[in-house]
Amino acid sequence: MQHDVLIRGDGCVGRALALALSRQGLRVALRGRPERSSGPDLRAYALNTASKRLLSDLKVWDALSPDARTPVRDMKVQGDQAGAHIGFSASQSEVEALTWIVDAAELEAQLETALRFAPHVERVLDDVPHALLALCEGREAGSRAALGVSTRAHRYGHSAVAARLVSDRPHHGVAWQWFRDGEVLALLPLDRPQAGHGWALVWSQPAERATRWLDASPTDFEAALQAHSQGLAGELKLASERKAWPLQWLQADRVSGPGFVLLGDCAHQVHPLSGQGLNLGLGDVATLAEVLAAREAWRPLGDERLLRRYDRKRVWPTRLMGGGADALWAGFAHDSPWVASLRNHGLNWVDQMPPLKRWLAQRAMG
């Protein structure tokens, strides 16, 4: 039997796509990844309003445990000069939350649970006959080149160190971010492992330094965190092991072709300082589902002209977000004194412009 859609990759993007297309009555084959990383999943996602809406429509959001999704009420960004900062507030933006910090393992588990009740999804171990191929294989996708898709990549030479932390101070739904010495330290409030006091850490730094911190003693690592965060989040203690992965900005030259589409990290990768990685992937899912639902009855799923509609809708949002995050990283990584002065004054200037801050927050929330 031919399936309507074959999805390669069953991470969050692949599973969400399978659920979205199943709701349209399409026959979906979901091919999983051949291997999984060992050990606990320490990732946490910052999901915007658009992602929350999609997951709610897929009956996944409300199934998440309360301690696995923490709303961010305020976001505070610190520059690398004294007094340089910018703050965002949900109340000023007149929204429920700026973003939600979600435990990655919990999200994958609830997507998997929802798939058990999806009537038109079949898990497969190998490729099966299909009308449309959707590549959701993630950052290490090996199928793009075989389809004639080229990519433009910028390797930062940095890695992101992830861990879970607890603090002696409640987080109050505040997310913190520090730009210092070419590094980006993010503390994201997450009520797992401890309600009101838990944090998800994402610390982007040169790869050699990241490797050293993975091997450092907990005491030394905590002391470095305390110094870098200036004690603004309280006294931080490790509550998990540490993991790291390399960072790059990647953009495929196209995200569709005759009979295939690319979604998620397979199509675009952005620096985690933007907090938009999975949001872009779930935006791909929502857009592709919308395009396929609106197709003419006579047009096949793999029709190249149909899939170009998806390409056109996604090319600029992903390029602008990736390019913006890359430019922001480059600006803070530059060690020129005049660049340092410009970027830090820029933070304060934007902080004094409430309409501009609201506009930026609305764009990030989707």
Automatic annotation (TrEMBL):
This protein's record includes keyword Ribosomal protein: no
Q: Which residues form the FAD-binding domain?
A: 134-314
InterPro entries from the UniProt entry: FAD-bd, FAD/NAD-bd_sf, UbiH/COQ6_monooxygenase
Family annotation (SUPFAM superfamilies) = FAD/NAD(P)-binding domain
Instruction: Write the protein's name.
Output: FAD-dependent monooxygenase
Q: Mind listing the UniProt keywords for this protein, alphabetically?
A: Monooxygenase, Oxidoreductase
Q: Does the keyword Ligase apply?
A: no
What does UniProt list as this organism's lineage? Answer: Bacteria, Pseudomonadati, Pseudomonadota, Betaproteobacteria, Burkholderiales
Q: State any single GO MF term.
A: FAD binding
